[in-house]
């Protein structure tokens, strides 16, 4: 579905992308993770035709980047980026109705998507009266109302509260189950762990590591066990033959209240790979 090979992008003397490779299969959720300035948004803009590459090959949904401006390509995409906008003077419903007609989507789809993000009651409100988080949700509705083949999301839940974020996650999971291929950027490691089939760590224009969240966490775990005692004490022991007896005893020691393996979060793995926090 998405094939990227040796993709490069320069802005003057700045090398934003230094030859990155990745592939996304149909129906997968792929997360591009990295700090601000790492090249995430640039990558999205290259794949949606907003930028032209400085080298390499891109193919999305059977179309190469030479044809990304064609309607036959764009009509199968959904995009949420920093360039996504709404008409402030129109109501929420009127905004989405314009795009529904443009994509010839079913008439009931506007109410359907607004209901999924908890904004059906705001359908008659002018966009200018909405909070930043509400506008974010409406723009997401705009991106998905035609059920695109490929959905590009740049920080889709960055301005949202936890309850609304949960609604968005449920919507994205439903789209995935219906066959939509989703590529997203995020700083939220819990979000990436929950949603993504595969992730890539992008740092200073280079992909440093790639794999499923679960595989990456296993790959970089330390072979240790943490024992927490009822007096608050914590003991760390290695998972090896030398400590086998001690660990067996801990299972039956009533003063041990918690036994936990050293299983890193995705954010901790990112720091281990790049030496930097994912912020």
Automatic annotation (TrEMBL):
The lineage of its organism: Bacteria, Bacillati, Bacillota, Bacilli, Bacillales. Keywords: ATP-binding, Nucleotide-binding, Transport. It comes from the Bacteria. This is ABC-2 type transport system ATP-binding protein. InterPro entries: AAA+_ATPase, ABC_transporter-like_ATP-bd, ABC_transporter-like_CS, ABC_transporter_ATP-binding, P-loop_NTPase. One of its GO terms (molecular function) is ATP hydrolysis activity. Residues 2-229 form the ABC transporter domain. The keyword Nucleotide-binding applies. Pfam families: ABC_tran. Gene3D superfamilies: P-loop containing nucleotide triphosphate hydrolases. PROSITE patterns: ABC_TRANSPORTER_1, ABC_TRANSPORTER_2.
